[in-house]
Amino acid sequence: MSELLGRIIRLQIQAEPLKATGRYDPGHLVVAEKALIGEAGMLIRDDSGWIVDAHHRAHPRARGGGNRALSIGFTGHYESMAERFDSVPLGIAGENMIVDGPAVRMAEISGGLLIRRSDGVEIDLDGPRPAAPCRPFTSFLLGSDDVLRRETIQSELAFLSDGTRGFLISVGNTDRCEEIAVGDEVFAR
Fold it and tell me: Which CATH architecture best describes the domain 3-188?
């Protein structure tokens, strides 16, 4: 049986890596109402054509070697981050999908996730694992123009662990791209 976690309220890609300069720069986030997802990653379309996420295998500067199809975050995590770090705009962590739902922990989604589109088509998302918080993003949240030393931000890095920073996830059971849209439902399997 699946448990409804919430609806997708934001879809976005990183047109370029957000840490390309060593510092965290969210200026390369591109938001869309619809996206294509597949085992290689996520793409969106705008007026100029297709834009490939920086983690997609086809991106010329693929982050993580193209081995990370998608990332997902929840509004509940953003509420927790805002309490800890003051202002944290929705999507600033660079996840591909933001779900309007409570903060979840790895144990709650270890069986995977399921997206149910408005037409009833279901898409399996497999192998979730917490996205490791990094020093550049954590320093950004703390308002620093410099990347802070690990030993000075240990408690913040620990806070962002176990999914607060988001989850990495794979698209399963499909050999083609599937369209998803803002408003689609997300379930824990």
Answer: Beta Barrel (2.40)
